[in-house]
Amino acid sequence: MATHGADSEVGRLQTVLLHRPGNELKRLTPRNNDRLLFDGIPWVARAQEEHDGFAEALRGRGVEVLYLTDLLAETLASDDARNHAITTALAGLHLGDTLRTYLAHFLADASPAELTDYLTAGIRNDEVRGGFGIVTSLLSHDDFLIDPLPNLLFTRDSSVWVRDRVAVTSLAMPARARETQLTELIYTQHPRFVGTRTVHGWHHEHVEGGDVLLLAPGVIAVGVGERTTPAGVERFARQSFDAGLAHTVLAVPITQERATMHLDTVCTMVDVDKIVMYPNVADSLTAYAVTPTGDGTLTVADAEPFLVAAAKAMEIDTLHQIDTGLDPVTAEREQWDDGNNTLAVAPRVAVAYERNVETNARLEEAGIEVVRIAGSELGSGRGGPRCMSCPVTREPLPVES
Ligand SMILES: NC(=[NH2+])NCCC[C@H](N)C(=O)O
């Protein structure tokens, strides 16, 4: 088993998990896009081109790019994994036994590549050639029997590596819940990952990877808002302490609304002690430091300004906020377009959407090298370079002497 893991947001990125957008995006219509968490209908071919540009930019920096669908298809070569994937995908109570039995046979006959496509792009009622019964008649022709997963694109949310373990997350929105069945399958059954120890899981309280920031080795910030719940952060903190993954978890309340669905929509680390932050929240963001007591209980400190609590936990003088100095309107526009959602490939080198001209200029003024990528179509799902990537391996940060 290769060694995987990450203990920061900025250690040199070695291996990353991406999902190249595919047929699942072709399922989006003006009637289902809200439910499927897209703000528009992307031009799929262009989204793929943009995504290929993203992957190339990463490879150009020496990063190994893994694709989720490749790993899934390889995983599904095993009968055990296939059976598991089929059973969980068909567990929904909307199917009924007649259709479920038909689909189970149909999917069992599919090749690993075909099955991967069905599991990610879904199956519509009118695409099925058998299993006809009362459910087929009463569902409408465009109802999904297996939901498509257009948000697989945002691999950050469906798993997160902390040190040498991977947390399979628990996604809050029904449109995304099934994603973690796939990441769990990959991490438990793909030959590359067999033996990896996991924490959390889709059956636990909600925690999404976009809320989890590895501020420094041993210090994890977790946003709590639309996606990660208070109970989710409690469970995650306890598990992280028990597994020796962290000594402090900072629970960071964020506004429960779409524009700030995850902590990484308002701030991301760009250096060991530098964070780019949406100016409109910078003054109000707070954190509760959660630490273990040793007897299994948790100590919760009073809320403090986020940057103060973070610096204390990280044992540094100051966590510097890159002051983008933007006026509130420009700041709000660029936040919406994921200007603060950068992916560090090394300390002081960050991938960002080219469209966020002002934020990028401020990053450069602060000494951060910005690797720009196109994202006009990718951005319609509301996610930037950080959301679209799950770091599997980062070089550990050098230990300060
Ligand atoms: N880590 C993130 N900010 N992910 C963005 C996810 C966007 C996705 N459409 C959703 O609503 O879930």
Automatic annotation (TrEMBL):
Gene3D superfamilies: Arginine deiminase, L-arginine/glycine Amidinotransferase, Chain A
Top-rank EC class of the record's enzyme: hydrolase
Record-linked InterPro entries: Arg_deiminase
Localization per record: Cytoplasm
Reactions performed catalytically: L-arginine + H2O = L-citrulline + NH4(+)
Family assignment from sequence similarity: Belongs to the arginine deiminase family.
PANTHER family named in the record: ARGININE DEIMINASE
Protein name: Arginine deiminase
